[in-house]
């Protein structure tokens, strides 16, 4: 299956956007105007729709890894990936970060690095910086 074949399938959209961007194994960017009969801004509802077979969803690997491993979802286009989406922590502009905040952020970065669910992302070149 190619990204272009998605136009022949029902896709699930989160929010108003209908264009999916996918990066291929050769680095090529494909922009697909995927058709959708269902649209929602709630990630849990969107996930449930995918589990119910209502269409193809583009979700983060960390959200679907368990369902893919259990056979409840199928990884469509496994050689393609979405552009990276950063995880950011916003801090006040003051120079000293409280110890508890610094420890929390270091722990989160460490957990993301160790998370087995993220192995496909790491294989695709994702990094987890501190």
From TrEMBL:
Residues 2-112 form the LysR substrate-binding domain. One of its GO terms (molecular function) is sequence-specific DNA binding. It comes from the Bacteria. InterPro entries: LysR-type_TF_proteobact-type (IPR058163), LysR_subst-bd (IPR005119). GO terms for biological process: DNA-templated transcription. Belongs to the LysR transcriptional regulatory family. This is LysR substrate-binding domain-containing protein. The lineage of its organism: Bacteria, Pseudomonadati, Pseudomonadota, Alphaproteobacteria, Acetobacterales.
């Amino acid at each position: 299956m190619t990204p272009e074949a998605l136009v022949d399938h029902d896709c699930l959209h989160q929010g108003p956007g209908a264009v999916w961007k996918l990066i291929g194994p050769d680095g090529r960017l494909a922009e697909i105007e995927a058709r959708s009969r269902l649209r929602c801004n709630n990630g849990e509802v969107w996930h449930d729709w995918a589990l119910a077979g209502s269409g193809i969803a583009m979700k983060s690997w960390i959200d679907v890894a368990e369902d893919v491993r259990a056979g409840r979802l199928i990884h469509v286009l496994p050689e393609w990936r979405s552009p990276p989406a950063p995880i950011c922590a916003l801090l006040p502009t003051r120079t000293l970060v409280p110890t508890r905040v610094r420890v929390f952020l270091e722990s989160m970065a460490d957990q993301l690095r160790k998370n087995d669910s993220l192995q496909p992302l790491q294989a695709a070149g994702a990094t987890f910086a501190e």
